[in-house]
Amino acid sequence: MELFNLWKDESYVKERERMVRLLEAKMDLIGDMPAHPVGLPATKLAEMYIPGAQIAHRAAQNNM
């Protein structure tokens, strides 16, 4: 999905949700801190997504 920037493509809603949950599970397993609110539906994450945004910078601003 990321290779072709299909994050906001509505035909990938189920896959996007699955991928976010897999990411969160892996981050929890390895003790990583996510740059997104954990447990938020992927549709809400898609609304927040801005191509090329400084995710780490925004996460720091939001204490995430």
The share of residues in extended strands comes to under 5%
Low-confidence stretches: none
Find the count of extended strands (DSSP E, 2+ residues).
0
User: What does the largest sheet look like?
Assistant: none
- The 3D shape can be described as globular
Q: Could you tell me the mean pLDDT? A: 75
The proportion of residues forming helix, as a percent range, comes to 40-55%
The succession of helices and strands, N to C, reads HHH
The value of Rg in angstroms is: 12 Å
For the termini, the CA-CA separation is 24 Å
| Class based on secondary structure composition and strand pairing | mainly alpha
Could you name the key traits of this structure?
3 helices; 64 residues; mainly alpha; single chain
How would you characterize the overall build of this protein?
This protein is an all-alpha fold and 64 residues long. It has one domain (10-61). The chain contains 3 helices and no strands. The chain has helices at residues 13-30, 42-48, 55-61. The chain is globular.
List the helices and strands and how they pair.
Layout lengths: L12 H18 L11 H7 L6 H7 L3
Give a brief rundown of this model.
This protein is an all-alpha fold and 64 residues long. The protein contains three helices and no strands. It has one domain (10-61).
